[in-house]
Amino acid sequence: MIVKSFDERLDRMQWQPTAVPTREIVDGLLGEQPSVDLRGISVTLLGAILGILIGVGLKGMVMPGTLWGPGSGLMGVIVGTMSMAGLVLSIPLAVFGAVLHQRKPWLLPLSAMNLLMIVVILLS
Where is the chain membrane-spanning (predicted)? Predict the structure, then answer.
């Protein structure tokens, strides 16, 4: 039964064992290479860079010997305030990115990578 239906299908397609594919079939198969979508890469990279900057700023706040570490004066206050503000804004940004990912698809990779980089640097 299976062989019969298989042979019937081959007969309907008019397939011949020595047939070679036509130029249109070969071009169609070779031309169907998926293109790389680089639209989300820049947003993800921006999130990673922001997360690294915030994480390094937060980590340097508690490490003696850094330019913005304990007892560094005005530089420590400026970098520490910016780092803390970045952390405080990153958490709601991640929540909004998860909630609004249907309407604003660029927000989720940005916020997820940002928060991931902050956590990775703080745990290292």
Answer: 40-62, 74-100, 106-123
Q: Which of 61, 62, 49 is nearest to 90 (CA)?
A: 49
Let me know: does 80 contact 61? Beta carbons within 8 Å. yes
If you search the block for the tokens 């928060």, which residue do you land on?
A: 115
Say if pTM beats, i.e. exceeds, 0.70. Answer: no
**How far, CA to CA in Å, does 117 sit from each of 10, 36, 54, 58?**
57, 24, 9, 12
The total of other beta-carbon atoms located within 10 Å of residue 86's CB is: 19
Residue 121: CB atoms within 10 A of its CB come to 17
User: Which parts of the chain have pLDDT scores under 50?
Assistant: 1
Confirm if 54 and 81 have CB atoms less than 8 A apart.
no
pLDDT at 29: 66
8-state DSSP, 68: T
